[in-house]
Amino acid sequence: MPNPFSVSEAQFSDLLTQIHDTITKYYISNPPKEIRPSKDVLQTTIQAEPPTVLQKEPLGTYATIQNLLNDLLPGIFVQSSPHFYGFVTGGALPPALLADFLVTMLDLDVMVHLPKDSIHTTIERHTIYLLCDLFQLPRSFAPGSTITTGATGSNIVGLACGREWLFSRDDPSCSIAKIGYLQAAIKSGVHNGIRIIVSKPHSSIAKAASILGLGSENLINLPASDAEPWNMDFERLESLLAKQQEDKIRPYDAGLFFSRHPDVLQRVFENPGAAYLATSGVDIVAPCNVNIENSRRFRALPIYAALKALGKSGYSALIRRLILHARMIARIIKDELYQYYELIFPNIDDLFMVVLFKAKDDTLNEVLAEQINATRKIWVSGTSWGGSKAVRIAAANWRVNLEEEGFGGVAIVRDVLKEVASFNSS
């Protein structure tokens, strides 16, 4: 009896060709010039969506992929465009994108270290070594490091480890991982909760504190030093996290966590009593015992591919390119469009990859992000600073260029900002 879930070689080849053509056009030969769909396209794609009730009879692989390519894809905005400035996201490097296709094909669960059967966990460990080299961290961090799902996952891991270390450092019997938060607090004499010291924290830290029961209101925000804002004593850090998509390494989703304390990491995240998940007598701990998830996508492979393809010098060049692109935009706002806009941080030489600005006209400033995005030529995110609304432009795509004109150039930003200002002043 034929397998009802299979697809013929001819159909599969045809679908792969269609997807290949779509990806090549979308990614290389003719990327979309408009970031978000028009209202008409959005309405059309919404109407083309499948019914909200699952149909009884199967649609089949071929028809389903046609539905995705022809009906749904046009209604999704283009976050991979270099002119998508909304978040520090998008623009996966070509080697990472291609490696991620292989990850989907392999369909691995990177959960247990099985050195006699596969090298996938060894690749993950070697990838962490390469990341240590890239970030100039000692490789001694590697045993206490893991690849997570993103910043929120990394912050949950970090705060969970910090909480465990705080309670059990003097008395191992006060382990929260073993006896729970309430019993550990009673036993250790901690009656007033935990305070988390931060400085300009990412919002996911508060979210992680909420998830862990530490309380999002228990963050104490310390101001950065005006004289030495980047004097952070990195050599003293106990742990470090990063988001891989924001480091321009791989497609969504991935994050990193590095720690000097592999014993604490394992104590918090081990799978007690699951003998089939344990690996003894090896130098690589089962990834499921140092991570939130047991079921883990092979996120290391695209990271490995990008690191090998670019090397240290390639990453330095990429970061430099993004910084200069952001500063070119800031220069346009400051020198050419100063009658309409003002930079939140006017010292352009201090800017990294994000430009914050606002409209001088209060009425326009209230709707500035929406007006910019309505042009569909670029996409920005709204934020607030100093009690008023502002716009955030983040240079985050390897395809940005340092020329005025062309795809990835800054001329389009100038044109859009002029268009929005002129429309509202007329």
TrEMBL record:
SUPFAM superfamilies: PLP-dependent transferases (SSF53383). InterPro entries: Aromatic_deC, PyrdxlP-dep_Trfase, PyrdxlP-dep_Trfase_major, PyrdxlP-dep_Trfase_small. Transmembrane segments: none annotated. GO terms for cellular component: cytoplasm. One of its GO terms (molecular function) is carboxy-lyase activity. Belongs to the group II decarboxylase family. This is Uncharacterized protein. It comes from Orbilia oligospora.
